[in-house]
Each structure stands twice: as structure tokens, then as C-alpha cells.
Amino acid sequence: MDSVTSATFVAEEPSHGLVRKAWDVTFRMGLRYIKNSYKDDPFRTFLEVCLIGFIVWYITKQKYNIGTNEIVLSEKEIDELVDEWKPEPLVPALTEFEREALDKAVMIDGPNGTKVRLASGTNNKPVLNFASYNFLGFLDSPELGKHAVESLRKYGVGSCGPPGFYGTLDVHMELEKQIAAFIGHSSAILYSQAFTTTLSVIPCFSKRSDIIVADEGVNFAVQKAIYLSRSKVYWYKHNDMADLERILKDVNKQLVGRRGKNALPRKFIVTEGLFQNTGDITPLVELVELKHRYKYRIILDESYSFGVLGKRGAGLTDHFNIDPHEVDLLIGALCYAVGASGGFCCADKDLVEHQRLSGLGYCFSASMPGILTIAAADAIQALEVDPDNYLGTMRENTTLLRTLLKRIPGLQVDGVAESPLIHIRLSPETLVRMKRSGGTWTKTDIDRVLIELSEEALKDGVLLMRATYVDEHERLLPNSSIRICVSSAHTRKEIEKCAHAIKSAVSRITSKKR
């Protein structure tokens, strides 16, 4: 046993010697490197000594332990804390008025159209619908509905993917070409929702440090799109071209002499064709002149004017007989006058192709279902074939209803003559007479009166709706009103019935002192 051990020790001794020798050589080389490296560079020596000292301090310092200050609770104390805990609500609690308005809200039971049945009705009789944006009456067209339903066998109920990822159908590409040709622009792109169309297009082109000059009366979707763009925003008075020009001049003066990365920001004028909140129309002729004079681009939201204004129903450019290419980005909706769903943007081809890569609503939302795409295409084709039938009847009905409403004492009728979107409200003089002891009216008081007016009209078989807004998020909160939507599918008798119901309702509610 001793002989074996001695042999092992003799065999291991040379290996220990080699290790010791290698360590000595390495140490000498390291020492020589340090001497040569730091001989003429004392700052480097100081810096690395400080670094080594920091590493030693960091390794040896006391670490934070999340369980160091743990408090041990008994079962009884845990139960008491659980019983006392009250979760924060996901949304703010409804106010008393909001609860009243929600309780009195009506619900349509069945298909939408000019005549609808209400889920809350006692006699289940159809009522005349003047609350839906069915301007051309396509919601009442059995031919369009039949053709759309037949397409279900070919396209199913949805595309199940965004346009860039197996979501593009042949009918999508055909509808884009059809819209561009109908409006007269170079190209068009489809979005699956009207609201997200605006939210995608404006931030797609206007970025941080760019400049937007916008009408303060634009609708909620445009306001949110401007906010999401994070651009520098200037607001001009509603439809006031003099105020717009003043701001354009001031902005251009501020940019004179700027240098650097943001010396030449992109500049946009943003407005609506037919204003949802007022029923007014943008003076596009003056707007185009200012665009060229001060070197801006125009973003025009034609969600409510597409299919409504112009000889062919092609929108504001058709109404003023202006080349659509003068509008750099033309946004439209297919869920109002057309009676389908989704939205679109018409622009030059390079601007449209840019949206296919950068438009968030296009890239990350499922494309429009084939059935709704076909419904939109059929509606536009019907409008192209016989514009006088749809537009002529709608405008006759609009003129008739405006004439009858203006004859009602105590009623104020807003909006331009060409707009089938009419806002009515009680005149200031009427409100003064209604208030007992000359008190003041709050917005909530007026809203309650308008709800009562719509309830009175519903008793006579006419469905009206008060215009609602997200008050705290509106740039320019409109005055309280009832929004009336005239359709070409309404008959003259139905228009007269609507005016009579409103006249009777106004008479009944204004006779009460409040």
C-alpha cells in the first residue's frame, strides 16, 4: 500500500510544478503589462482603481430584500382587510341626469330603416325613423339586401384578417377602384370602420413637430385623430376663413428663419365637408385658395357629405365643382349615406400606398366583410346610375321639412339649406318664457327638455334623438339640440307628419313653466 502511495505522489509532483510555473509566468507577464501600461498614464491608473473600488463596494453592500419588512397578519386581520377593501370602478359613476337619459333611451327591435319597431314599445307599431343617417334610403332597399345576402355563400361573414395578411378580397380592390373613379381622384384605400379611418389617416401623415390648423367645430373622431398625431395644433373659429388666414400668416411667420431638423414641418388644414355638429358646409373654394397662398395641404373629412352633396353625390368637391386633386387627403364613410360599413381615403397613389404600410387601422384591423363591401359597391353604382332619383328626392324632402320647421313658433332651425342633417333647438326667447321667475338655464336643464320633446314626438309615431356628446372631451361643445336626418325614402306625407309631431311636442312642453 505504501509503495502505491509513493508512486502516486511522485507522478503528481511534476504536475504541481507545472501549474506553479505557469502561474509565475502569468503573474510576471501581468505585472510587466501593468508597469508598461501605466508608466506614462496616471489618469488611467486612477480611473481603474476607482472602478475596482466601486465593484468591490457594490458586491459587498447590503442588498434590498423584499421580505425584510414583511408584516405577519393573522387570519382574522386578513379577513377584516378583505371585507374593508372596495375596488375602484372601471368607469366613473353615472350622474343623475346620465342615469335618467340611459333609462329613457330607445332600442330598435329588428332592421333599421325609415320605419322601425322599438323594443320598448307597448303597441309594437312601427314608427317613423328620423334619427338614423339613412340619407339615401339604401337601408330600405330590398334589392341591395338580397344581393348582399347571396354573397355570403362565396365570402362568408368576415375576412378574419387584416388586408395585408390574407384579408384582402377581390371585392375590396374593386370597390377601391370604384370609389376613386366616382370621386375623381387618383386612388383610394378601404378601412373596415369609419371612425378608425379618420383616426388612422391623420396620424399617418402628421407627426410630432408637424403643424395642423383645424376648424374648432370638427366632429369627435377628427378631434381624437388630431390629438393622436401629437402635432402642433392651432384652432380657427368655425368656418371663419378670415380667422383661418390670420393663423396661417402667423404660423408662416414663426417658421421664417428656422434651421435644423424641424425647419420645414409638414403643414395641414383639417376640416369637415358637412359638419356633423352644426349641419354647416365648409367654403371649399376659399379654403383651396388659402392652401395655395400659404403652402398647406388639406385633409377633408367627408364622412357626412359623401353621397349627399354635389350633382352626383360625390361630396364637397362635386358640390363646388372643384378638382378633387386639390384636396390632398379626402376621408369618407360608407356607413352613413351608403348604408354599409367602413370608410375610405382618396389621395394620390403614393399617399395611398404609404397608408397600406403605416395606417394603423388598415394594418392591424380585420378588413371589411365581403357582404358589406358588396352592399357599398351596389349602393354607389345605384347612385351613379340614377342620381336624380336619390339626391333629388332627398333634397326635396329636406327643403320641405326645413320650411315646415321654420314655421313652428319657438323653434330654432340650424344648418345650411342643402344639408339633410338638421339641428333643431328651442330659441333663447322661448327658454326665457319657460323659466319661472326668470332663472337661468343650465345645459342639463335644456337636455332634459329636449328629451321630453323627443318623448312627446314619439307618442305621435316619430322617432327623434337628442344629439349627444362626450362633453369633457369636446373642443367646442355644441349647444344642446335634436339632430334630424332626412332620407330620400321618406314620403311627403311622412315629412309632414314629422313636422306636425314636432310642432305638437313643442307646443306641449313650452306651455309648462319650469
Describe this structure in words.
- This protein is α/β, with parallel strands linked by helices.
- The chain has helices at residues 2-38, 42-60, 75-84, 96-103, 142-150, 152-155, 163-167, 170-183, 194-205, 220-229, 241-255, 284-294, 316-320, 349-358, 360-363, 370-385, 387-406, 428-434, 443-459, 492-510; strands at 115-116, 127-129, 187-191, 211-215, 232-236, 267-272, 297-302, 329-333, 343-347, 411-414, 421-426, 462-463, 465-466, 482-485.
- It has a 7-stranded mixed sheet, with helices on both faces. The protein has a 4-stranded antiparallel sheet with strand order 10-11-14-13. Strands 1-2-12 form a 3-stranded mixed sheet.
- It is extended, with a radius of gyration of 35 Å.
Keyphrases for this structure?
514 residues, seven-stranded mixed beta sheet
In a nutshell, what does this entry contain?
The protein has 514 residues and is of the alpha/beta class. It has 20 helices and 14 strands. Helix 13 (316-320) links the parallel strand 7 (297-302) and strand 8.
